Amino acid sequence: MEENINNLNQFLCELEIMSVKLQNYHWNVQGKHFFVIHSKLEEYYDEIREQIDEIAEHILAKGFQPLGTMNDFIQNSKIQEAKNEKIESAEILTNIIEDYKTLQHKAIEIKQEAEKVEDYETSALIDDYLKVYAKKLWMFNESIK
Ligand SMILES: [Fe+2]
User: Fold this and answer.
1) How far is the CA of 94 from the centre of ligand 1 (A)?
2) Distance from the CA of 123 to the center of ligand 1, in angstroms?
3) Residue 85 CA to ligand 1 centre (angstroms)
């Protein structure tokens, strides 16, 4: 069970950093696709904020403590923050494709570990995340062609 909870906590940290990163891009996007990307990014970080709350409360419901400080989030996230500077939409898309792949890989790892220890609630919860990430990656990849 411990490994399973560690995975969920790492995932929580990656989601926290991703939320800040998407908001940073929401503020710093520039170029001819500004209006579309600016508003899409808001939709994405709102979605991630809901996922953060769901994962943290899932950890609590299982009787464990979710990580909860900015230091924890930064130290345990494979996703790196963005620089605070203007950025073109094409570069944002290229960067967030990699970040959503990181989230997808972590979600797969969580599901695999959860099934090993017969934690079917976690396994079932993660199914929705896998669907969301696969669909996003398809759309992002179409948008950069
Ligand atoms: Fe805004």
Assistant:
1) 21
2) 34
3) 16
- 55-112 pLDDT, tens digit per residue, is 999 999 999 999 999 999 999 999 999 999 999 999 999 999 999 999 999 999 999 9
Query: In one letter, which amino acid is 104?
Result: Q
Ligand 1 centre to CA of 49 (Å) is: 14
pTM above 0.85, yes or no: yes
Q: 34 C-alpha to center of ligand 1: Å?
A: 12
Dihedral sign for Cα atoms in the order 38, 92, 6, 117:
positive
CATH architecture of 2-78+87-143: Up-down Bundle (1.20)
- 34-60 as b/e: b if 16+ CB within 10 A: eeebbebbeebbeebeebbeebbebbe
Return phi, psi of residue 88, to 5°.
-80, 150
Q: Hey, is 56 helix, strand or coil?
A: helix
> Would you state the structure tokens that stand for residue 59, as one six-digit string?
């950890």
Distance of CA 137 to the CA centre of its chain: 12
Domain residue limits, the chain? 2-78+87-143
